[in-house]
Design brief:
118 residues; mainly alpha
Length: 118
């Protein structure tokens, strides 16, 4: 496994954990679901640790997890645009968190392919 992909993975995990913690704090510790990005990050970290010596298996597992992260949170992106343009949304904190996770997951996916291509 490429060392750069490892560093990239740990950055992704760190950002998701930070997103989960910030979301939980911003909801005044009332919504455990705000921690979903952090829980997802734990899954990514554990699978990476188990599979990092497996080379391509680790890479493709990270690709699949990034896609899962995108698909699971993409629904928040259009709502975020509505929210930013002044419209009301049902759960603003969730919309923002979903959008950030979708964007971070997209960037992770793109960067994985860029690093693998080198």
């Amino acid at each position: 496994m490429n060392e750069t992909i490892g560093k990239l993975t740990w950055m992704y995990v760190g950002l998701l954990v930070l997103l989960g913690i910030v979301g939980y704090v911003m909801t005044s510790f009332q919504s455990v679901t705000a921690m979903i990005p952090a829980f997802f990050a734990i899954v990514v970290a554990l699978l990476f640790l188990v599979l990092k010596s497996k080379g391509n298996a680790a890479f493709w597992t990270l690709i699949i997890l990034a896609i899962v992260g995108i698909v699971a949170t993409a629904k928040g992106v259009p709502q975020a645009f509505s929210y930013m343009s002044g419209s009301e949304v049902a759960r603003p904190a969730a919309v923002i968190s979903q959008s950030v996770m979708a964007i971070v997951s997209c960037l992770f996916l793109i960067m994985l392919f860029m690093k693998k291509a080198k």
